[in-house]
């Protein structure tokens, strides 16, 4: 059973990730209390390791999304600056590129925001 610490007390964690029934409290270090609980329940430790691993994977995913998002925004800004000095034909060509970049940006934004809710 996964556990979660709140202050000096430890609670069971439900499958939905919410705080469940109180296991107990300690006057000492709550992390030592958690280690003792996990030491006596190997299945819980494996679940906790899997949770941490998934969190790291998600954090990496969001970091990559954020980097792509910021690079696309920067590309659009640079394109607008270039467009100020272009002739009509080049301007229209660059405008099409910017519109595609904007669509890509919208896709990244949608992907990024759907998981954050």
Q: In a few lines, what is going on in this structure?
A:
The chain has 117 residues and is α+β, with helices and mostly antiparallel strands. The protein is built from three helices and three strands. β1 and β2 form a beta hairpin.
What can you tell me about this protein's structure?
This protein folds into two domains: 38 residues, no CATH class; 65 residues. The chain starts with a strand and ends with a helix. Helix 2 packs antiparallel against helix 3. Strand 1 and strand 2 form a beta hairpin. The protein is an alpha+beta fold and 117 residues long. It contains three helices and three strands; from the N terminus they run βββααα. It has a three-stranded antiparallel beta sheet, with helices on one face. The protein is rod-shaped and about 75 Å long.
Order of helices and strands: EEEHHH
Percent of sequence in beta strands: 5-15%
Largest sheet: 3 strands, antiparallel
The overall average pLDDT, rounded, is 82
Question: What is the domain total for the residues?
Answer: 2
Low-confidence stretches: none
Rg, rounded, reads: 24 Å
Strand order in space, largest sheet: 1-2-3
């Amino acid at each position: 059973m996964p556990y979660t610490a709140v202050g000096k007390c430890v609670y069971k964690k439900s499958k939905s990730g919410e705080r469940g029934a109180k296991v107990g409290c300690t006057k000492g270090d709550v992390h030592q209390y958690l280690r003792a609980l996990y030491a006596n329940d190997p299945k819980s430790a494996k679940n906790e390791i899997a949770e941490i691993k998934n969190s790291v994977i998600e954090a990496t995913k969001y970091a990559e999304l954020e980097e792509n998002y910021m690079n696309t925004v920067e590309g659009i800004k640079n394109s607008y600056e270039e467009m100020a000095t272009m002739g009509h034909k080049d301007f229209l060509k660059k405008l099409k590129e910017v519109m595609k970049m904007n669509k890509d940006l919208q896709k990244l934004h949608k992907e990024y925001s759907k998981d954050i809710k």
